[in-house]
Amino acid sequence: MTENNPFATGNQYSMGSPQVTVGNGAAAPAAGDLVKDTSTAGFAADVIQESRRQPVLVDFWAPWCGPCKQLTPVLEKAVKAAGGAVKLVKMNIDEHPSIAGQLGIQSIPAVIAFRDGQPVDGFMGAVPESQVQEFIRKLGGAGNGAAQIAEALAAATEARGAGDAQTAAAIYEAVLEQAPETIEAIAGLAELSLEAGDTEGAKAALAAVPEAKRDAPALAAVRARMALAEQAASLGNPAELEERLANDPKDHQARFDLSMIQNTLGERDKAADNLLAIVKADRGWKDDGARNQLLQFFEAWGMTDEATLAARRKLSSLLFS
């Protein structure tokens, strides 16, 4: 994209505003800081200085710009998928016009890539996602080092925490393109499939696991979740189970089945409490079946999950008090 590009190497710009200064010593960006907004005052630290560590894309936009609204989500997704190899800094030219003016930007959206404190490449307009990905790749955002993979996985975790499954999946897929045996990415994709109700997709993701890594703990947790989901799918209507319990609180089978469904719905605390209620009322029911199922929940949820920790404390109190 450097052909006929006013931002390519060789074009030097003077950052003449007294608010723009260059310094050193800022910490490298964390995975959660891959995308941020900046101002005229923050441009030197967020762009000039930061570009000495890794390339920084600057998205010049405005609230009234329709194509900007199309491009920005594409940029954010692609930068997160690059896993820390590049950063995206967004600048509202209505609020901060001076930098865009100094760079000669006359139309938006405009994206300029900075490296080593200088603009080195760029493009204008709402280009397709594939073109954005190629731009980042050529810029140097397709590295496969261990640090970059770790940052990418952290970014995927953050995206999932924010409810952005699409971005998380894109990041996992980008990681697997570079390092196909990354267990965390395989497990992440399988979990996203399960959360979307796509059991076959989860199975397909796990099928890509190398034989030598099939017993990895992260994969065991996914398989446990898959087994629970398949088991719960045949248990019926939770409202009917709750009605049975209202009529007979000692209907342990109804309580057990309800717990399985609650787990599938993500209601982990309720699922655990129902199994604990069975353990308290009748430890020997179905050969200690409620406790055994609770232990299976722990494996599926993970040993450090809040629901696991809380239920384990309650179980210990029941068994040893």
From TrEMBL:
SUPFAM superfamilies for the chain: Thioredoxin-like, TPR-like
This protein's UniProt keywords: Disulfide bond, Electron transport, Redox-active center, Transport
PROSITE patterns membership: THIOREDOXIN_1, THIOREDOXIN_2
Residue span, Thioredoxin domain: 22-141
Domain of life: Bacteria
Family: Belongs to the thioredoxin family.
The name this protein goes by in its record: Thioredoxin
The species this protein was found in: Ollibium composti
